[in-house]
Amino acid sequence: MSITLLLREYADYDLWANARFVDRLAAEPDAVLDAPVSSSFPSLRSTLLHIRDAEHVWRCRLTGERHSWPAEPSLDPRTLMDHARQLHGLVSAMDEADLLSIRTYRDLKGNEHRSAAWRMLMHCYNHSTQHRGQLITMMRGLGLDGIPANDLIVYQRSLKDSV
User: Fold this and answer.
1) Are the beta carbons of 50 and 41 closer than 8 angstroms?
2) CATH of the domain at 74
3) 73 in a domain, yes or no?
4) Which are the contacts of 103, defined by CB distance < 8 A and separation ≥ 6?
5) How far is 72 from 40, CA to CA, in rounded Å?
6) What is the mean pLDDT of each run of 10 residues along the chain (163 residues)?
7) Residue 162: inside a domain, yes or no?
8) What single DSSP character describes residue 106?
9) 0.85 exceeded by the pTM?
10) Is residue 42 part of a domain?
11) Cβ atoms of 153 and 14 closer than 8 Å
């Protein structure tokens, strides 16, 4: 198996999983999205926006573009999908040489780092998965139902070639 195939599947999974939470939480009023919940971030909205902002920053690091934090001024959680689609498009266009290439970037404190593009992407996708898991716990804490399953295996089983 190639690293290209693996990273493209993670990109597809990330887009699928993000959409499940954005779609589910779009049905909730602001009072629920902003209700205080004990977690890494204080609310469902702030957690979704953190995923958005991080995916934006990692995409920019990979392309060498300047980034902003937050990614944009909007507090609409649906904006996560715009940034997730941009990251997905980038990964879909990368070949093995791109994924193996070493990128130099700065963290949010300005410290310089070097990493292979595939490692940057694996971190980004793992980071988003971690926070989606927190969303599940937060949603349960708020007594919400219809919590989306977001396990990688659930995504993989939904594929036509799930073997």
Assistant:
1) yes
2) 1.20.120.450
3) yes
4) 61, 62, 64, 114, 115, 116, 117, 120
5) 21
6) 92 98 96 96 98 98 94 96 98 97 94 97 98 97 96 91 65
7) no
8) E
9) yes
10) yes
11) no
Can you give the C-alpha Rg of the chain in angstroms?
16
Q: Are the beta carbons of 23 and 31 closer than 8 angstroms?
A: no
Instruction: Count other Cβ atoms within 10 Å, centred on residue 68.
Output: 11
158: buried, middle or exposed (CB in 10 Å: 19+, 13-18, 0-12)? exposed
Number of domains forming the structure of the chain: 1
Range of the domain at 63: 3-157
> Would you say residue 137 lies in a domain?
yes
In angstroms, the CA 42 to CA 75 distance is 14
> 40, 152 in Cβ contact below 8 A?
no
Is residue 18 exposed (0-12), middle (13-18) or buried (19+ Cβ within 10 Å)? buried
